[in-house]
């Protein structure tokens, strides 16, 4: 099977790594990719937001499957263009991707499907904003309606800050604050059949102790030793299957990866957000634990034959990933800094720890930073404590001027804090 992956972050590196280990994959391409993905896939340049360009590349490569990683191409209709060219694609249509592209659309689908989520108002005027902030009180949760790479959400006790963020958005969703630990649960679906993956937890805030601004995600781990063993079944029944059924009922079936961001509140599990693609950095830890070869599962979803997919098989291992971000991320990240220590990590006699690249590019012999999140250092171990130790040992070998990372990823879950 020839597979083309679209994107160039750590999530795509994790996808390419898994696909490269799948004996069914005879050729693996990534466009545009990054300096690390080049080790496991052939890179091709492409404008990932240009559906015609992606479809033409897939046709040229005679790809049997295209996997679209990030949300922006999905919302721009790249999966539709590839499907129209007659090539199986893993990723939803532009219409179905509105589940991530518009928070208001997601709320509407959840209401119709009876999916538990925070109560909310969609506001377009300052009067509506003030009324909604007043109705819920602090802490205020204010979300830009459109795509914002995880940075369009402000959660604050400060009314003036909440109001300022809301007034800076064209359309804004203001909602009830959900208290409780967060879980990311991914499911692979062909629009009818839904296959859940293992849950993971992401660390969204920039600084230790969940302080600082929201980011795209600073680290993740899986499994969740503290979670109710029935969580996956419950979310399948209350959230994932009803959402997939509702989108099919509307004539916009969702095929691809449905990401449920959940809060486990005292009053039950609630959806915080949906995404229409694999999460980053959670994918790094979820795929590290998946034993079933990935390509066939994604192809079954793309072809509408997921009902024929044998049950997924998981390792007993735990996985931890720690994101190394640029100086000044998430505000105005500095790029172009040289990354050192990658060879030392690779040469280490420790195959369970590896570096997945996010924003990197090659400059002559050097690998330099090229984005806010630069590397996602991933490790597996017999339990979270061991996986964590291996991941942080590898992090310590990497040198990137001005870089930052959290030191508490998975600490609490591993019983260390
Ligand atoms: P989102 O982009 O919707 O995932 O929001 C980013 C982050 O903001 C989430 O991961 C939560 O940490 C936080 N957040 C979003 N919505 C809520 C809510 N209703 N209550 C509490 N925190 C929230
Ligand atoms: N880790 C959060 C996201 O992928 O949106």
Residue share in helices? 25-40%
Oligomeric status of the shown chains?
Answer: single chain
Name of the CATH architecture of the largest domain: 2-Layer Sandwich
| Morphology call | globular
Keywords, please?
417 residues; alpha+beta; Rossmann fold; Dna Ligase, domain 1; D-amino Acid Aminotransferase, Chain A, domain 1; five-stranded parallel β-sheet; five-stranded antiparallel β-sheet; 24 strands; 27% strand; globular; binds adenosine monophosphate; binds glycine
Fold and architecture overview:
- With 417 residues, this protein is α+β, with helices and mostly antiparallel strands.
- The protein has four domains: 2-90, Rossmann fold (3-Layer(aba) Sandwich), CATH 3.40.50; 119-175, Dna Ligase, domain 1 (2-Layer Sandwich), CATH 3.30.1490; 182-308, 2-Layer Sandwich (D-amino Acid Aminotransferase, Chain A, domain 1); 318-400, Phosphoribosylglycinamide synthetase, C-terminal domain (Glycinamide Ribonucleotide Synthetase, Chain A, domain 4, Alpha-Beta Complex).
- 30% of the residues lie in helices and 27% in strands.
- It contains 13 helices and 24 strands.
- The strands form six sheets. The chain has a five-stranded parallel beta sheet with strand order 3-2-1-4-5, sandwiched between helices. It has a five-stranded antiparallel beta sheet with strand order 12-15-18-23-20. The chain has a four-stranded antiparallel beta sheet with strand order 6-9-7-8, with helices on both faces.
- Strand 7 and strand 8 form a beta hairpin.
- The model has no long low-confidence stretch (mean pLDDT 95).
- Adenosine monophosphate binds next to strand 7, strand 8 and strand 17.
